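hi! just following up on the protien thing from before. the input was this:
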Amino acid sequence: MSEKNNELAIFEQIRSDLVVKDGSEFTVPMAKVFGHGTIAKQESFGGRSLQQNAELVDAAVNNTKDLQNIWNRSHSQWMWKHINLSYHSAEKNMRQIAAEVSRKKSALNEAKWNQIKSEIKLRKLEEKLDSGEDLDYWTEVETKVKIAQTQESMAEGTLYIEGAMKDILSLNDIYEQLKKKLNNFNEEDLEANESKAHLKRSLVQSIRDVRQSGSITKGEQEYLEQVGVNPTKVQNIIREYVKEEAASERWDNKGLIEFVSSLTNQLIDVAKVDQVRMEMMGFDSEYTKGISYDTKIGQLGHTEEE
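and the predicted 3d structure came back as:
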């Protein structure tokens, strides 16, 4: 009989002790579960029982829980700016911001509806307990276990919700900063700048190829050709740049940014390589108007709150 009572000890504790009203801080300690029942005295690692190790884990989780308040997001603000938004094109960085915010918004929307469903589930379970209905023992136990599980799940979910919120707020701040460089634009403006945006990306990647092997790889040659550029000529120019870069006494990469921008302007604005390619391929080099979002966005000094 004592063995049976030991197996049911966790049920009894949830039934009497573990259901709390403040779901924001709710948790069922590991030791409350793994420290009771048929596996409680099982031999575990470190010469300790499973219950003892569970108690150590509870203490470790509690000791490090504040770390989760910092590292619960995808990227730091530094990483957003230096790593994820590292295109040489402001337009491409704007596009990346849009994509990242869209993903975070979808995650928050899913969390939002899951929260609503959990609230409904929790209220229904609580009403079941408070109804005055004479519940049998196991129905009461199962109901309280479901309440405990729902409360803990909601508390855990808040951590990830806050992480996604941080990311969106960081991206919004970066968006406001980037508007100083690119503002008052619409989809047609972006279409008109696509050649430069893609050429800048290809040039940067080609420079890395030349630094590494002295030649532009096959993939980047194709990318340059798709924009309309002669890869061999560009390769020769890049080789000269790389020599100058190696001899430079500067530690920053300002020279790289200026070189890519200058060469891009020369190839697109002067040589008009993209237009030549389109004419040779039988396409109109201009984008078709009237099928794009033409309202100007990214206004300086304008926020949604205003």
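Residues 1-8, 19-24 have pLDDT under 50 and may be disordered.
The first helix runs from residue 2 to 7.
cheers
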